[in-house]
Amino acid sequence: MEELRDDIKLHLDMDRKTQTYVDYWEALLVVANWELAEARKKDAVDRAKVRGEQLPAELLAEERGLHSSIETDVRDLLEGKSSSELDALRSQIESQMSSGSAKVVEYWETVLKRLQIYKAKACLKEIHAKMLRKHLQRLEPHLEGDDKVETDHSLRPSEEESEHDVDDSKTFSPEPMLKDDQEAEEGGSFSPELLHGDDDEEAIDPEEDRATLERKRVAVFEEKQWRIREAMASKPPPPKDNF
User: Fold this and answer.
1) What is the pLDDT of residues 49-76, one digit of tens each?
2) pLDDT at position 238
């Protein structure tokens, strides 16, 4: 997990081409830091319990935490919201806490603490969806071109048959064959035509090249998210009485 966090920091420093990339790596770093901190807390609690030691004050408070039903309420409040909705909720909570109208301050502090990680995850989902939409939009012209090529190929046999019929009619024409030979001689030299070497070479399509690069970027993007999900899934679930 620490190596993954270091990789994310490296990308955050280097990959600042657009604000979208910056937002993505910053959100990914928030998730990595959160998961790493949770793993360290759990290790510290487990070691203290095994050794029979007293937990530090901050860990003891978090170990007691909120009731499991309250934790469920917090999750239901934050889960499924977009990043903009979570921003609006945070502003509302902070306003109530500063004005003194918030009744259970500890509860809303816990909500604000969880809100940070939920917003980062929502941001990652939105960026991923945005990049996939852009990628599909870039591929649409190529897909339409492929459909057109297939249509042309399906029509080509009938055209070739028509040309073949014309050639057959010429073959059995009553005109003397000598006329064709005379026209060929009048045309000039019997030397073969010069073939250009680049006629058979395939030109590189810039649009296809850009689409290939975009597919590679999306593949790297999805691999990073897969590594985060694997790291999150490998962490054992916290005890129900933590909060």
Assistant:
1) 888 877 666 665 555 555 566 778 888 9
2) 47
Taking a C-beta distance cutoff of 8 angstroms, is the pair 108, 96 a contact? yes
Q: Got the DSSP string for 180-235? A: HHHHHHHT---PPPPPPGGGSSPPPPHHHHHHHHHHHHHHHHHHHHHHHHHHHHHS
Cβ atoms within 10 Å, residue 71: 18
Q: Where are the alpha helices (DSSP H) in 15-67?
A: 19-51, 57-64
Tell the residue number behind the tokens 């985060």, with chain if given.
228
Q: How far, in Å, CA of 201 to CA of 217, rounded? A: 28
What is the rounded CA–CA span in Å between residue 24 and residue 82? 15
Report the C-alpha gap between 69 and 74 in whole angstroms: 9
**Cα 219 to the chain's mean position, in Å?**
7
* pTM for the full predicted model: 0.55
Q: Which two tokens stand for residue 168?
A: 């057959």
Which is it for the CA torsion 136, 16, 217, 84, positive or negative? negative
CA angle 171, 175, 176 (to 5 degrees): 95
The residue behind tokens 């620490």 is 2
Tell me how far apart the terminal alpha carbons of the chain are, to the nearest angstrom: 24
